[in-house]
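Deliverable D5.2: sample structural annotation.
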Amino acid sequence: MTPEYIIQSLGDDALIVDFGKLPLVDAHFEVTRLNRKIQAGLSHEIVETVAAYTTLAIFYRLDVVLKNNRRKKNETAFYYVKNKVEQLLQEKDKAVLKAEERLIKIPVCYDEIFAPDLKNLSIKKEMTVDKIIAIHSSKVYNVYMIGFLPGFPYLGEVDDAIAFERKKQPVNVAEGSVGIAGKQTGIYPVGSPGGWQIIGRTPVKIFDPQNEEPCFLKAGDKIQFYSISKNEFENYQSRNT
């Protein structure tokens, strides 16, 4: 069965596919599925795609699309690309998508020196710090989108037991900090002001502009955290500097 979606124009050379009528996990699956199909089948006509929680924006090469579409004088570039997208949406390939999934395990040190908000979260949630760590590191999270900062992954969803609101005022947050905001969790790729509740830090560098692929993570990946000690954190950093 073809998923529910809406396709709308985003100007002369882009469109957006919205799966927002579906439950979040299903919408994310369809965004990821379509994104990979486009990269494989329409790459010569596409500039880039931008995946979000329930939408996929597609920016296309207007000159290439118009050239490929020259035989259909009454069809605009938008409708040409829209028809291509709808053809891809009709295809069934869940097995292929499953095979392409990346599960990435990321170490996190939840030591209090790296987790300024963990104790307060423990008090507010009336559970031990160890319990919060166990819950946070037990789930496999979807990378729903990259945004806010270069390489910042929006991950979800955290267990209701540890979901917590953002801070009312932002503070300075260190690179690698792992935080919670609502039912989201995420990793700060660089030092920045931020309002997420910081519960740990990873030594993994998730954004490096010197790399061919600057962002370590991408929308569609799956992430699982695992706890490491402060010594392990420092050893990891020393090996990778």
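Annotation notes: The two ends are 50 Å apart (CA to CA). Residues 6-90 form a domain with the Gyrase A; domain 2 fold (CATH 3.30.1360.40).
The annotation will be released with the project's public dataset once the embargo ends.
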